[in-house]
Every structure is written in structure tokens, then in C-alpha cells.
Amino acid sequence: MPHVTLRYERLKLYEEVWVEAVTTVAKRYGISDVALRKICRKLAVPLPPLGYWAKIAAGKKLPAPSLPKYSGPAEIVRQRYVSDEPVEPDPEHLVARREFEIQPENRIVVSETLDKPHEMIAATERAFRKSKRRNPGDQPITERPALAISVSEASLPRSLRIMDALVKALIARGMPLRIEPDGNRRTCLTIQGQVLAIRLVENTSRTEREPTKEERQEIKKYGHTYLPDRYSYQPTGALKLGIMGHNEMQKVVADGKHQRVEQFLNEFVVKIEAEAVRRKRHEEHLERQRRLWEEQARRRREREEKQRKETERLKALEEEAHNWKRAEDIRTYVAAVEANARREDGSIELNSELDNWIAWARHKADWIDPILNVECPILDEK
What is the pLDDT of residues 119-132, one digit of tens each? Predict the structure, then answer.
């Protein structure tokens, strides 16, 4: 499969993203708008703020900022895999979702205080407040029904406000969250027939303690030793919100140096719907592959059955030809015996031993001959 080289030039990108929406520019490069935004940040290319294109569409004239001074590279070069398979366009509902979420009036706002929380948020808060257990990262653990949140007590209020805003926004969009009663505290929603589990976690930093004097002596003596409580974990306050994949988070929005999870809840809603589309297409692809393999297996079985029957017919033909040759050999031999007797004796006496043998031998040749349908009671019974 081919790979193509893409060049992202700083000045060109700056000119493009202030003439058209990032989603439109990204399609020309064959990448997602999220990937293009990351490239723009690396090249210090300013991007239009939220709601910029809606104002432009409304007839407002907004000035574009100047390209700031920058001492880094003028371009980024990337290799991108290009599949030979045709790219399936995004379904209309996903395109509509993207358009809906970028509108200023649809922005998901996280409140500064947890006023009138959704019942799931209230239940989660009660569960965590009463929790007495802690994981190694000093994060409270609850066995009561609660949202999938793994954060420290210090980050819990903010996390609840984020999830409250997200829960209410998803309900308004017809994508209600639920807590699965499976003991794993999975927070799920169903969209496009796909069950997606989301999770909010807090990053932790790990610190390794120094071995004690006795532990150092054991390490020196044996080369190693068991160090209980070798690592300690400290909450960092940095949150990330994502969709659970195979034991890892995917489609993540996270705190950064200049960004907060709260800013990307609309983007996360788009990620949810996009992931549902991806998984549904993956399931459909697997189903098509299963049907293809079943059809190939069916054809293979039919071919093998035809080959088996053809082989049996060929073996029967070879046996018939062999028997026909045996019959001809017997007839030739009998004719030679008869001719020799007539040369020596002039004739063969009727019902003599030789005459009876000749009749018997010719009958056996006719019985062996597959062309004739001659019966032999004694041998047919065998």
C-alpha cells in the first residue's frame, strides 16, 4: 500500500485556515480537523475562535490576527498511509453533529458551582463522599452505583461539574448516559446501536522511594530484593475525558498547558458520535468478511465435492476399462486355445471338456466385460 508525503507549510496554513473552516482545510490534506489543529499549534498558526465562521456567515467582517513571530521550523513533513480502498464519506448525521456543535449557542458550559445536579451526579457525589477506600493514587473508590470517575478528592468537585454539564448536554441531544449495573461502574450510552463507555480520570505522578539500609544490603547480597510500597502516586489535577477501548482510553480530550477539558466538551460529543460510526462500520466490515469467508468456504466445499465425485467417476472408468481389457484378453486367449485345438485335432467334439471350457471362459469374459450386461449367479452373489 502506498504512502504519501505531506508538507504543512506555516504561511500556507495560516492563509488557508482564515479563508475556510479548519474542517474543510483538513479534508484537503486527508486528515482530521483535530490533527490539523495540533499541527497549527506546533507551527504557532493562530486559529479562528469558536463561532467565528457563524459570524462571518451572518455578514460580519472580522479581522484576522497577524501571524506571530516564531523561531521554529517553517513546515512539518509527515508520511501518511493511503489505502487503495475508497474512503467512505461521513454519514449525514455526523456532519450535522459537527455543524451543530460548533455553533456558539450550542456550546456546553460548565458551571462554577454544582447547582441542581443531575440525579446521577448527585448519586455519584454521595457515593464518593462516603467512600473509605483509596487506590494507590490516593483516589477514592466506591462500590456504590456511580459514574466512571477516577480522581482525587481535591479534583472531585470540578469533575462532578464537568460530568454534570456533559450528562445534561447528552440528554438534550438524545444520547443519555447510564451507569451499567455490572459492578464495573461503567458509564455508557448507546448510539447508532453501539454501546460506548466513557471515563473521566486524573493523571498521577509516580515517585520511587529510596531503599532502606537493610534493603540496600539485600540488593548488594542477592542482586535484588522486594521493595514494598516502592512507588508513591500523587494526583496532578490534570483531567482527561475519553471513550474506553480495549482497556485504554481513546478519543481523549485532556487538560494541557493552555487548555482545559471544559473547553472541549462539544468536541467530545462529536468524538462520541464519530466513534460510534467507526465501530458500526467496523462491525459491518467484519460481518461482510464473515459472509465472504462463509461463501468462500461453501464454494470450497462444493468444489471439493465435485472433485470427489469426479475422482470416483474416473476410478470407475479406469476399472471398467481394466475389466474390458481383461475380457478382451480372455477372449483372445480362448480363441487361441480353440484355434490350436482345431489345428491339432481338426475339430472340437460337442460337449467335450474343451468345448464346455470354451463356453465357460467366454461367458466369464462376457460377465467381466462392462459393456455387456451378462449375469453370473455364483459370482454376482459374491
Answer: 999 988 888 887 66
